[in-house]
Design a protein that fits this description.
The structure is a single chain. The longest helix has 45 residues, at 291-335. Helix content is 34%, strand content 24%. It has nine helices and 13 strands. Helix 2 (108-120) packs across helix 6. The protein has a five-stranded mixed beta barrel with strand order 1-2-3-5-4. It has three domains: 6-68, Nucleic acid-binding proteins (OB fold (Dihydrolipoamide Acetyltransferase, E2P), Beta Barrel), CATH 2.40.50.140; 74-235, Rossmann fold, CATH 3.40.50.300; 248-317, Probable gtpase engc, domain 3 (Ribonucleotide Reductase Protein R1, domain 1, Orthogonal Bundle), CATH 1.10.40. The protein starts with 5 loop residues before the first strand and ends with a helix. With 336 residues, the chain is an alpha/beta fold. The protein is flat.
Length: 336
C-alpha cells in the first residue's frame, strides 16, 4: 500500500463503483469507510470529472478514494421517479452540449428544461441539432433562429453524423484540457457523435425505433473520454425524465425574458399566476410572451419549489432518525 495520498481523476461511475485515471493508467477504485460514513447526500459522492485524493493498493492496481476535491461546477438533477433526492451527473464541466435531433425529438420545451439545469450549474451551454440531413437548410435555420430568439447569444450548431456535415467545425472548437459534456435523450446520436469525434467506432450504438423516433440507451454509465486533441468529453445515458430541485438561478437564466418582464409587476413577490397588475400575465394576454413558454416556466417553478420542500423535509427526518439511532446506541452501551 502506498502511504501517501495522490490526486487522480474519476473517469467512470457505475453505481458505487469507480474508475480513476492515475499515473497514465486507469484503475478501479472504491470509497474508504470513513468517506462513506461522512456522506450526507448523493452530492457528496465522487462524480465523473471529479478530482479525488486516493491511496493506491495491491501494487497500484486498485485505489481507495479518501476525499473529493473542491468542484468548479457540478451538474445534477432530481432522481427519476417519485424519490425526492439529487442525482449527480458530472463535475468540473466547462461546456455542455445539449443535443436534440431534427426529427420527433426536437422540442423547445424540453430544451428549456436542459438549459435550466445547465445554467443552474454555472456551465456554458451549446445546442447541437443532430440529424441535419433530415431537413432542408431553410427549416434548420428557422429552428436555429427560434432558439436564438429566446436565448440571445447562445451558440447553436447543426450537425449530421450520417453525412459528416458540421462535424469538422465542431472538432475545431474543442480545446485541449477543457471538459465537455453530452446531454440529450436516447436516440439523438450522442454515442455516434462521440465515435465521430474519436475518429473510430469505439462505442456501441443502437438503432432508433422507426415508429416513434425513440432510441434505446447505448450509453449505460457516465464516463470521461479523452479525444485525440486532448479535449475531454463526458458521455451520459439518455434522460427520459428531467426534474430539478431548487433551481431559481437556472430559471432566471433560462427565462431571462420572463425575469425582465417581471420587474414591472405590481408585487415584488408576484407568483405570475393570479395577481392583479402582473406584467407577465399581461404579456401572455397580449401575445408578446408565448403561452407555452409561460406554462413551462410556471410548471418548472412549481416543481422546483415542491421538490425543494420535500427534499428539506426528508433531510430533517433523516437527521432526526440519525440522532435517535445514536441515542439508542449510547443507552445500550451504558446499560451493558
Amino acid at each position: 500500500m502506498n502511504g501517501e495520498l495522490e490526486t487522480a481523476r474519476v473517469i467512470a461511475v457505475d453505481r458505487e463503483r469507480f474508475i480513476v485515471a492515475h499515473a497514465n493508467k486507469d484503475i478501479p477504485a472504491e470509497m474508504t469507510g470513513k468517506l462513506m460514513f461522512s456522506v450526507e447526500s448523493p452530492l457528496d459522492y465522487p462524480a465523473v470529472g471529479d478530482w479525488v485524493q486516493i491511496q493506491t493498493v495491491n501494487q497500484d492496481s486498485q485505489a481507495m478514494i479518501h476525499a473529493v476535491c473542491d468542484r468548479k461546477t457540478i451538474l445534477k438533477r432530481k432522481t427519476a421517479g417519485k424519490k425526492i433526492s439529487h442525482q449527480l451527473i458530472a463535475a468540473n464541466i466547462d461546456i455542455a452540449f445539449i443535443v436534440q435531433s431534427l426529427d420527433n425529438n426536437y422540442n423547445l420545451r424540453r430544451l428549456e428544461r436542459y438549459l435550466v439545469m445547465v445554467y443552474d450549474a454555472g456551465i456554458q451551454p451549446l445546442v447541437l441539432l443532430s440529424k441535419s440531413d433530415l431537413q432542408d437548410r431553410g427549416s434548420i435555420q428557422e429552428k436555429i433562429g427560434d432558439i436564438q430568439k429566446l436565448y440571445a447569444g447562445i451558440e447553436v450548431k447543426a450537425i449530421s453524423n450520417k453525412t459528416g456535415d458540421g462535424i469538422e467545425n465542431l472538432k475545431q472548437m474543442l480545446q485541449p484540457q477543457k471538459v465537455y459534456c453530452l446531454l440529450g435523450s436516447s436516440g439523438v446520436g450522442k454515442t455516434t457523435l462521440l465515435n465521430r469525434l474519436m475518429e473510430e467506432d469505439k462505442f456501441l450504438t443502437r438503432d432508433v425505433r422507426a415508429k416513434d423516433g425513440k432510441g434505446r440507451h447505448a450509453t449505460t454509465r457516465r464516463q470521461l473520454i479523452t479525444l485525440p486533441n486532448q479535449a475531454m468529453i463526458i458521455d451520459t445515458p439518455g434522460m427520459r425524465e428531467l426534474g430539478n430541485i431548487a433551481v431559481e438561478t437556472g430559471l432566471q437564466s433560462a427565462f431571462q425574458d420572463i425575469d425582465a418582464i417581471s420587474t414591472d409587476c405590481r408585487y415584488q413577490d408576484c407568483s405570475h399566476t393570479q395577481e392583479s397588475d402582473c406584467a407577465v400575465l399581461a404579456a401572455v394576454a397580449a401575445g408578446t410572451l408565448s403561452n407555452r413558454r409561460y406554462q413551462n416556466y410556471i410548471k418548472m417553478k412549481k416543481e422546483s419549489v415542491f421538490h425543494e420542500m420535500s427534499y428539506l423535509e426528508k433531510k430533517k427526518r433523516d437527521k432526526q432518525f440519525g440522532k435517535m439511532v445514536k441515542e439508542v446506541k449510547r443507552v445500550k452501551k451504558k446499560t451493558f
